[in-house]
UniProtKB/TrEMBL annotation:
Organism of derivation: Candidatus Mediterraneibacter caccavium
UniProt entry tagged with the keyword ATP-binding: yes
Lineage top rank: taxon: Bacteria
Domain ABC transporter: 4-234
UniProt similarity note: Belongs to the ABC transporter superfamily.
Name the UniProt record assigns to this protein: Metal ABC transporter ATP-binding protein
Coiled-coil intervals: none
Pfam family, one: ABC_tran
């Protein structure tokens, strides 16, 4: 059974539908990239997958024992988050909040999980440093460690490389690939970078008011819609129009 299945889902704000007719599923260990122009409903869908926003129509079904609060989430960066006045360790440890329930203090298992994730992401030496003093790339690693503390099954990343330079971006993508392949954690990533998406992801969901495409990255590359958008991305690099 799929971890998440969306059946005929439409989502909107105050009666105004933003994205409609979504029919797709995410399986264990999948790497799904959600692509589409600004305003096409990617972040709105993310909120619904996390259970933070009700759907207008259809249903989202969680399977394989996945609970909404066990999805590790790396939100889009806001200026407030960038200035968060806590140590890197505290930020990472806070990923355990959802699973802590009503217990007032972090357990030893929580602390061990935070230390393991710091090690995994190569930021153990930054543990005591203030989060707001980190570089953009280090901040994203800390937030990824935090998201990993919240899950064993699925990571949901909303435009995680925005504002990072190309080298740090490439390193971040490599890290995500490694986590996906080595630990089998399913990855759902909202991305503007359609070329990297097709290279790394197992599946592509392309939104534009509705579901323009859902299938494997290979199928997307061969599809009419995929070819059109990938050629658009090539042209954009040569000074042409960028479609997505
Ligand atoms: P994307 O992530 O693809 O850029 P969003 O999901 O953020 O798109 O937004 C999709 C549409 O929903 C946009 O037209 C946006 O203006 C609208 N929208 C987003 N958030 C809200 C909100 N809280 N209230 C009303 N409209 C919203």
């Amino acid at each position: 059974m799929a971890l998440i299945r969306c059946e005929d889902v439409s989502i909107g704000y105050e009666g105004q539908t933003v994205v409609r007719d979504l029919d797709f599923s995410i399986g264990a260990g999948d790497y799904l990239c959600i692509v589409g122009e600004n305003g096409s409903g990617k972040s709105t869908l993310v909120k619904s997958l996390l259970g933070l926003k009700n759907v207008e129509k259809g249903r989202i079904i969680y399977g394989d024992g996945l609970k909404k609060n066990e999805i590790g989430y790396l939100p889009q960066q806001t200026d407030t988050q960038k200035d968060f006045p806590a140590s890197v360790y505290e930020v990472v440890l806070s990923g355990r909040l959802n699973s802590r329930g009503l217990k007032p203090f972090y357990t030893n298992a929580d602390k061990k999980a935070a230390e393991e994730k710091l090690e995994l992401l190569g930021i153990r030496d930054l543990a005591k440093q203030c989060y707001r003093e980190l570089s953009g790339g280090q901040k994203q690693r800390a937030l990824l460690a935090r998201a990993l503390c919240a899950t064993k099954t699925m990571l949901l990343l909303d435009e995680p490389v925005t504002g990072l330079d190309p080298i740090v971006t490439a390193e971040f993508y490599q890290l995500i690939r490694r986590i996906n392949r080595e630990s089998g954690i399913a990855v759902v990533m909202v991305s503007h970078d359609i070329e990297s998406a097709v290279e790394d992801a197992s599946h592509i969901l392309h939104l534009q008011e509705k579901m323009l495409f859902f299938g494997t990255a290979e199928e997307y590359r061969k599809s009419r819609i995929g070819r059109r958008f990938l050629e658009g991305a090539d042209k954009a690099e040569n000074g042409g129009e960028r479609h997505a």
